[in-house]
Amino acid sequence: KLNRQTIIIKRYLCKQFGTAYRQKAFQFYLCTCLVDITLDPMTNHPWLQLSDDKRKVQEALNETEVSFSTQRFDSWPCVLGWDGLTSGRYYWEIDIANNGYWRIGVTTASSKRHGRGPMNPPEGFWTIWRSTRQFYACTKPETELPLSLVPKKLGVYLDYEEGQVSFYKVETRSHIFTFTANFREKLYPLFAPLDGRTLITLSSTEVTPEASSHRSGINVCKVL
């Protein structure tokens, strides 16, 4: 909680410096929620190729041999983050190379992995989708977004208790879209390069033992 003096100072700074201060303050807040995400090789579609460090994904030249998993996508070219998120606030960033087709967001543990059904909130998916001339939030029906907001570096912010998933264009600190929902089960980051040229890279964060708690796929970080 903020004490009265801190609140007065923050209000003064907002009044004096306006949007620039608010943007920097919010950016710092997001950094306190940073998580280090890696990809789960038991979920990727056979046509997706993961890097050895499980931080990059793109469409492969050929279908790869993968082990059987009930969590693996067999139709949509998707892959999930390693661990599920069940409480708290999280923020991660993704570099998107070559300006191709992609879909990025979060999905529930029980969402459909088999076949090509709709990927919208009623089905347990909260994502944004990009093609060459279109940019949408995958609501029902879809919400068209300005092409000027298409990012090269995308920030995703999840507040589980508040039921919010927000997307940001990191290079301009611009808000893209926010979904609201009532989450009741684990959520997993979702990544889908939808053509052969798109390369998705998960940004890494610097983690120290005293500033993080470690799980198999996620390091919860503090920014010093």
From TrEMBL:
Domain of life: Eukaryota
SMART domains membership: PRY, SPRY
Coiled-coil intervals, chain numbering: none
CDD domains given in the database record: SPRY_PRY_C-I_1
InterPro entries: B30.2/SPRY (IPR001870), B30.2/SPRY_sf (IPR043136), Butyrophylin_SPRY (IPR003879), ConA-like_dom_sf (IPR013320), PRY (IPR006574), SPRY_dom (IPR003877), TRIM/RBCC (IPR050143)
Pfam families reported for this sequence: PRY, SPRY
Protein name: Si:ch211-114c12.5
Organism: Sinocyclocheilus grahami
